[in-house]
Amino acid sequence: MSLHARFMLLLGLLGAAVIANIGVTVWSVGLLDREQREPIAQIGSALEILNSTKRTLWEQAGQFGLFVRPAAGAQAQPAAAASLPPERIAEFRRLGAEALSGVAALDGVEASLVRAGVNTAANLRSRIERANSGFEAYLEGDDAAGQMSLTELYTLHELIERLEARLIQEAGLSAEHAVQVRKRLRATLVSSVLSVLIVLVTAGWLFRRWVLVRVDRLGEAAERIGRGEFEHRVEVTGDDELDRVGRQLNEMTETIETMQAERIDRERLAAIGDMGRRLAHNIRNPLGGIRSMAELSALELDEASPVREHQHRIIRTVDQFTRWLQDLLSVSNPLAVRIRPVELPELLSELVDSHQALAESRGVSLSLDIDRAPRAVSLDRSHFEHVVSALITNAIQACQRGGRVEVAAEEQAAVWRLRVTDDGTGIAPEHLQAMFAPYFTTKQGGTGIGLAQAQRVVVEHGGRIWAENHADAGSEAAGATLIVELPLHRKPGMATIGQSEEADCGQDTPA
Predict the structure, then answer these.
(1) How large a percentage of the chain has pLDDT more than 90?
(2) How far apart are CA 237 and CA 246, in angstroms?
(3) For 52-79, what is the mean pLDDT?
(4) Rounded to 5 degrees, what are φ and ψ at 272?
(5) What is the mean pLDDT of the chain?
């Protein structure tokens, strides 16, 4: 997911949280208004109407006669009809109409219907109408109707008082309910605020993780690369914008590292080439003299003389040394490899024989196993001699006096392998890869050129070279084997190795 998409998602979450918080707040205010203010207001209106109606009925009864609570078994006594003046009669009628109007207003108060009963207003209206009609009948001479009218007024007064008490009780319950509603609303609002805070904290954490931490890593990587730590790499785990920047920074670092390594290699190769040219110039003439003296000495000896064979060995060794001098000069120049069919057993026998003197001088046993070796292979004999010589020399130098070095070759399907095994101290684990680099050496006075040049030749032959420890380096059972794997046959021809084709190679004590 790209950073743009992530930020859009983050903004969406923040917007949803804010909208939800606003919605919860509006709903809470409305709910509090409905559950607290409206019921209390309706109960207050109902109480006001009932109180006004009760006063009206009280005054109406006063116009009819003394309004007193009758004793048990007694009846309220109205005033004599003949004693009622017209103005009192008119006032009674007005008050009766006013009481009916108040009861009609009670119909519009929802709380009164819910809490006092749906038929409350109708019951009051019916009783007031009966009281009014009884009064009219009383005026016409019906004393019983007058008695009933006065009793209804008294009953209405008691009924309204009970209704008021019930509504006051309901008002208290409404207040308690409002308290509970406020608590729930407070919890809801707190939860809403906490949810917004959680979203904000999450957004900040995601922003830090998605942007700030990774930008800091890029800055740290740039600083370390600027200090020359070209092995440092930025950790890339995705494919967003910052990951692409990190990947490009890694590629740039690899390019700089490669260019710097190539520059160092060129400088070293130039120095080695210059040294090699001076060395070859100073050594070729003495080598030529040694070879000439060996040839003359061999001619003067009998064919059966063992010294004659020693002279021929000197001649072969001088020739090999001359070729190696030429190889040393070629380190700083492209290397021409000429692939030709070669008798492998003969080549290995000559090379092992030429190194017997070195092995004997160090008290090391050098042996050759070619029982499973292929008879003919395709390679450049001259350059491959350098490969085998470098491996044998390093193996001999890795052994203590009384040690053993074995050179073996075997055929495996379409490839063949050369193994040079020693029972020396082995290879330090940290050197298993580093020893493959050109100019890497652990020997005093070593140049790190021999195995590097050997690796160049092996790679050009289409093969590979690697080292293996027999056990932990430094243990009694330590030792190492350097393995060269090459194809059995290649098309004859010539190839050129450039300096950029160098790869890693090494032995347990690189030259």
Answers:
(1) 16
(2) 10
(3) 64
(4) -65, -40
(5) 78
Q: How far apart are CA 426 and CA 412, in angstroms?
A: 26
Phi, psi of 338 (to 5 degrees): -110, 110
pTM over 0.90: no
195 or 106: whose pLDDT is higher? 195
CA triple 119-123-126, angle to 5 deg: 140
Q: CA-to-CA distance for 422 and 130, rounded, in angstroms?
A: 131
The domain segmentation of the chain, as residue ranges, is 3-202, 261-333, 334-511
CATH class of 334-511: alpha beta
Q: Which residue has the tokens 């939800």?
A: 20
Distances (CA, A) of 244 to 106, 236, 498: 77, 8, 33
One-letter-per-residue 3-state SS of 202-221 = HHHHHHHHHHHHHHHHHHHH
In the chain, count H helices and then E strands: 14, 8
CA 142 remoteness from chain centre: 100
The beta strands (E) that lie in 348-446 are given as 365-372, 376-379, 404-412, 415-422
CATH topology of domain 3-202: Four Helix Bundle (Hemerythrin (Met), subunit A) (1.20.120)
